[in-house]
Write a structure and sequence with these properties.
514 residues; alpha/beta; six-stranded parallel β-sheet; 14 helices; 41% helix; elongated
């Protein structure tokens, strides 16, 4: 159902045919209204009436101060901020390589110099990983935390290749380098290098095969953080002890600044940010059991946080910690499921792991800490004539927030929600969806992969044929939001591309990316 234009029913404006108007194109649009421009005066008259224009009185020449006061600086666009952050990331990554090039000696051979260059690239990229994992809102906002985390994972492969290539190339050149394979009798600088490389290998293995190794998220998170610090500190110690490429004082100064910055990021994540959260605790206000082992947790500030309100955009998420203190190594990210204009923040959490299972042990009045909001998976960033939401299981939570916000704002743009679950009795968010049905122009399609005999709805999975049956004729003009596990999102993206949906209209958020 299309909404009527607020300008419909107006009379057209007659203009001289000999004078082309830049607004004439609007007259061909149905429901458009063109109002005659009016000039100020005691009685407003149409702009077509010719009146003598009074000559302005001479004004004094503005001073430098008044001219400067008139300058209004426009806020940088999201694209401009993204370019700035990318340029800064690239600059920080290549500066060590430029410093290394000033100390290269042709007599050492190309392979040795290439090996040294790879070592510096690995060190700078690994240090920058602290910045990517620090959850700095200003840095992640132009891209979205989902894209930042994917980049964090992908750039790690470059760091590993460079870090492993550094010693391998040295071992291929001379016997004196191969002697460093004797880790026990090797000098301290070589032992630190081996410690850094070994920790890096362990970090990659436990990250890629975490589920196969049956590591819980909490154990993996602690291990990941500790190994990351060990990798960078050992690599810095190795570089400083080699000293060949650090002979110039200004080079040592630059690397000392790098080390200080990396250390500060670690202090920020583990000390400064928890202190700020400790000053702004939250309390559990309400708890609602949901179908499928889920629970909705309503939280509110324990007290007015010094006048600092908490606001978020529908679709964003926050890291949550329950307990008496925020000084812990493990936080858990969850999407807000409540309306962005509501006075209370809600999280609908499905029991899938150790922490999510412990959420059911929360009681009203318990203290929790909320680090957020984060993410750019929002309607504000991707406005459209209508929206299609595709998710499975707990992936419905950001869509619940988006739909509730649209309902509270009286937004009647058409929406389609395709929600996949294994059983009809385990549909997360079905209570919230029932309350929204009468307030939105919303079509909900439940797709059950293993339904019971009494189920009469859609069966199987969300695929090309299903979407083709329900989507309108103008499906290419809609905005598509996807939220599910990584492999499900990848499959849904390919399905939408197969329907000729423009790639720029497909927006996804993956959970369980580790």
């Amino acid at each position: 159902m299309s909404a009527a234009s607020p300008r419909s029913g107006s009379l057209p404006v007659v203009r001289p045919t000999s004078v082309p108007s830049p607004r004439s194109a609007l007259q061909d649009r149905p429901g458009a209204q063109i109002r005659p421009r009016r000039t100020p005066g005691p009685r407003s008259t149409p702009a077509l009436e010719v009146r003598p224009e009074p000559q302005p009185a001479p004004r004094p020449r503005p001073t430098t101060r008044t001219r400067a006061a008139r300058v209004r600086r426009a806020a940088p666009t999201r694209g401009a901020r993204a370019v700035v952050w990318l340029a800064a990331h690239l600059l920080i990554g290549v500066v060590p390589l430029a410093l290394c090039s000033t100390q290269l000696m042709p007599g050492r051979g190309f392979v040795v110099n290439l090996s040294i260059a790879l070592g510096f690239v690995a060190l700078s990229v690994l240090g920058l990983q602290f910045a990517l994992a620090a959850r700095l809102s200003r840095a992640t906002a132009p891209f979205g935390i989902d894209a930042v985390l994917r980049y964090h994972r992908q750039i790690s492969f470059l760091a590993v290749a460079a870090a492993l290539g550094h010693p391998v190339l040295l071992f291929l050149t001379a016997d004196r380098y191969r002697a460093l394979l004797d880790v026990v009798h090797a000098p301290l600088r070589a032992q630190l290098a081996w410690a850094s490389v070994g920790a890096l290998v362990v970090l990659m293995v436990t990250s890629i095969w975490r589920r196969a190794l049956r590591l819980s998220y909490a154990v993996w998170h602690v291990l990941h953080s500790a190994l990351g610090v060990l990798i960078v500190l050992a690599a810095l110690g190795h570089a400083f002890l080699v000293n060949y490429y650090f002979s110039e004082p200004w080079v040592r100064l630059v690397w000392a600044l790098y080390a200080a910055a990396f250390l500060w990021l670690a202090v920020w994540v583990r000390l400064v940010k928890p202190l700020r959260l400790w000053r702004r605790p939250w309390r559990v206000a309400e708890l609602w059991p949901e179908p499928g082992g889920s629970v909705t947790v309503g939280v509110e500030p324990a007290y007015r946080h010094g006048g600092h309100g908490f606001s978020f955009q529908a679709g964003q998420f926050a890291w949550i910690l329950s307990g008496r203190t925020p000084f812990t190594l493990t936080y858990h990210p969850f999407s807000m499921s409540s309306s962005a204009v509501s006075s209370r923040v809600e999280f609908t959490i499905k029991r899938v792991g150790q922490f999510t299972s412990s959420v059911r042990e929360l009681k009203v009045g318990d203290t929790v800490y909320v680090d957020g909001p984060h993410g750019s998976f929002t309607l504000q960033r991707h406005p459209g004539l209508g929206y299609v939401f595709l998710g499975t299981g707990a992936g419905v939570t950001p869509f619940l927030s988006m739909l509730a916000t649209m309902a509270d704002q009286g937004d009647q743009r058409p929406c389609w929600l395709f929600l996949g679950n294994a059983h009809e009795g385990q549909i997360t968010g079905i209570r919230q969806l029932a309350r929204l049905q009468g307030r939105l122009n919303l079509t909900v399609v439940h797709v059950i992969s293993r339904p019971g005999e009494s189920w009469t709805g859609e069966r199987g999975r969300i695929d090309h044929a299903l979407l083709d049956r329900y989507l309108p004729e103008h499906w290419r003009a809609l905005q598509y939001f996807l939220c599910a596990r990584e492999e499900v999102v990848d499959a849904l993206e390919q399905t939408l591309l197969g329907l000729d949906v423009p790639a720029e209209r497909i927006h996804s958020e993956r959970f369980g990316m580790v």
